[in-house]
Design goal:
Elements (H helix, E strand, L loop, with lengths): L2 H28 L4 E3 L3 E4 L5 E4 L3 E7 L6 E9 L2 E8 L11 E6 L6 E6 L4 E4 L4 H15 L1
Parallel strand pairs: 7-9
Antiparallel strand pairs: 1-2, 2-3, 4-8, 5-6, 6-7, 8-9
């Protein structure tokens, strides 16, 4: 086999593997998170999910404000889907520069469920399905009251 043909096969293989990896990431990233409730904690499932203990929750609100300007520190940011750890880089009256937050958003458009923890960590959640959004917001309000 000559070197040009071998190089061609290697390039094709790299392209196929890259497309497969990107497809898998997009598939899992596109899955909406689920919020599971237990007596002592809630769990946000899915990619970059987390557990939040009941005592750590300071407030839960629904906000129609747009997301603050932020950059990804660890996670995924793809076509409006944001999951993982982000840092705010635009100071305004509600947020400080460098303030960390977590995003579980399926779209960059409001409304967002905003959970603020006792350590001031902010967690933004939204869903494409507005009925599901209202359901989880209602359940979170019951959970914290």
């Amino acid at each position: 086999m000559n070197i040009e043909l071998l190089t061609f096969y290697i390039v094709v293989l790299i392209i196929i593997v890259s497309v497969a990896i990107v497809s898998i990431v997009v598939f899992f990233a596109d899955k909406q998170p689920d919020i599971r409730f237990s007596k002592d904690f809630i769990q946000i499932t899915g990619m970059f999910g987390m557990i939040i203990h009941h005592a750590e929750i300071a407030s839960v609100i629904m906000t129609n404000d747009k997301l603050p300007s932020m950059f990804k520190t660890w996670g995924l940011c793809f076509l409006g889907i944001n999951k993982g750890d982000f840092d705010i880089y635009d100071k305004n009256e509600e947020y400080e520069v460098g303030e960390g937050c977590k995003l579980y958003t399926q779209t960059n458009k409001p409304p967002f469920i905003l959970i603020t923890l006792t350590n001031d960590l902010k967690i933004f959640i939204n869903f494409r399905n507005k009925t599901l959004m209202k359901k989880y917001y209602s359940e979170l309000l019951k959970y914290v009251s």
